UniProtKB/TrEMBL annotation:
InterPro entries according to UniProt: Znf_C2H2_type
Chloroplast keyword on record: no
Domain C2H2-type, residue spans: 264-291
Domain of life of the native organism: Eukaryota
Keyword Repressor belongs to the record: no
GO function terms (MF aspect): zinc ion binding
This protein's name: 5809_t:CDS:1
Entry keywords, A to Z: Metal-binding, Zinc, Zinc-finger
Amino acid sequence: MKEYEEVFKINNTVKPVWVLFTDGGPDENPRFINNIYQYCCLFKKLDLDYLTIRTNAPGQSAFNPVERAMASLSKKLGEISFSIDTFGNHLDSQGKIINKDLGLRNFRHAGEALCNIWQRDKIFGKPVYCEYVDEESMPFSDVVFETNLGCNNEKANDEYEEPEVGNVEDTEQVLWAWIENHAKMCKYSLDIRKCEVPECCSPKRAPEVATLLEPTNGFLPPVIKGKDNHFLNPIHTVEYLDSAKLAKYDEHCPSISAELYACLVCKKCKKYFPTCAFLLNHKHLAHPKSK
C-alpha cells in the first residue's frame, strides 16, 4: 500500500533492516517453530539483510504501545454481532461444516464488515487500514530455502548429512538447516541475517550493518546486565564492549536458571537453543551419529 511506503521503503526499495516488536501471543511469538518459519519466509521474500523480532517478557505486554493501540479495535466489537448465515446456512444440526464454499462466503462477508468498522476511526491520529485476506492466500508459496551447507559461518560438522528433499519431513529438515545457518534463536527474540554464500543469499544492501555486527558473528549481541543490574542496549553493547567477554545468549535471562541453561546447550558443539525441542532438532541434523 502506498500509505506505508514511507515506513517500509527507501528509494522505492524495501528497507534492508527490519525490527519487529511483538507481544508474547502464540500467533507472533518468535519462540514457536511455525512462527519462525513464517519470519524466515518474510526475510527471504523481502530480501532483507537483517530481521530482528523482539517480544515482551511475561507481564510486560501492557507496556507495548501497539497493544494499547489495538485495544481500541477490540473495544469496538463489544456490542457487535455478525450473522453466521448471510448467504445461507453452511452448518448441520451439530455445528459441522457441510458446505465449505458457502461457509467461506459467509466468513468473508463478516470479515469485510469488520474491516469497515475498524477503518472508521484513527488510532493515535493515524488512519487504520484493514483488508480481508482470503483463507487460501499463500504469500510465501514461491519462497525457496537452499540446502547449500557452505553458508554456515561456523565450522562445518563432518558428521552432517544433507537430507534428500522428497517429503514433508525432509523439506522441514532443509528449512531447519537454513534456520540454523542464518538465525539466532533466544527465549524472547529471533534474529535472521544473510550469509556470505552468493548461491544462498543475495549481496547485502546495507553492508555497514554487517560490519557493525561482525564481532558478534553477524547478529545483535546478547541482552546483558550492566554493573547497575540494568539491561544494556544491544547496539551500545556491540559498539563499546569486548565481544570476547560478553555473556552468552540468554545467560542473563531471569526466567532461565543455570541448571536449565545447561540443559539447553548442545554438549558437543556448545550451541545454545531456547527450547529442548530445538536442541533435539539440532542434534538430529548436526550430530546424527551421536547418541
